[in-house]
């Protein structure tokens, strides 16, 4: 039997105006019960009708899967493709299909994910306020029925707010990556690498270390009005528990916008470092440790400040020059 996930720490009594760095810069997840309970969206008699008020016809991408997948949006059997089809469609058509299949025992999977709120529903944020302390956050909306999204990580910090329905979140700290059996990095259902483990029926013969991952798992079930802060790089599995669910989330990075994504470094390291002999990989591991992962004020202290160049503090111009040098080298 798998170990039971532990509950995520909870706070109550906060509103969207009460969020400070103690929460928004945390390295641990926290459930914020009732954070957005006062949103008009949450209080609306019909969430469907409320969304239609703001819709102006912009197409959305919907993921549609047959009833047999049980809401699990995933790969096909041999990981050569996916068990769903993405389609460009009007949001009001999606809402109609969700309403049409409410109460069905085995409905098709219907899921609109990561759609920019201001593009799809202009004016929504004017009524449903969120104060993130000046952070440059991207607000997105997620709409669907009883779907399951495999465990994955996101680079930005994430504040996920349940606006309709219920959702179960299962989280794992970044250190559990080797126990989650991650699929391909460069061929993914929605842009992020995902765990291949089916959380409804984990195959421990194929994925035995998943039992270890579950020893570190945290879980929370959120009602409409609740929110969850998910720190950068934490793995999270999300299951929608009602026939109609709406999530609004906010993503932001703690690094300046001109900084590149570390995912590019990982992909480049796979291309240039992974196939080296062991001794050389260990040498590069030491260089990365010295210059990146354990870098501090002493790393380049022996070099005059004006001569430190890339080893000194980076600004937008310096990053632009580095990127230009890298592109020149890679295009040779």
TrEMBL record:
Chain coiled-coil ranges: none
Gene3D superfamilies: Cupin (2.60.120.650)
Transmembrane segments: none
InterPro entries: Cupin_8, JmjC_dom
Record-linked Pfam families: Cupin_8
Domain of life: Bacteria
Segments forming domain JmjC: 74-267
Protein name per UniProt: Cupin-like domain-containing protein
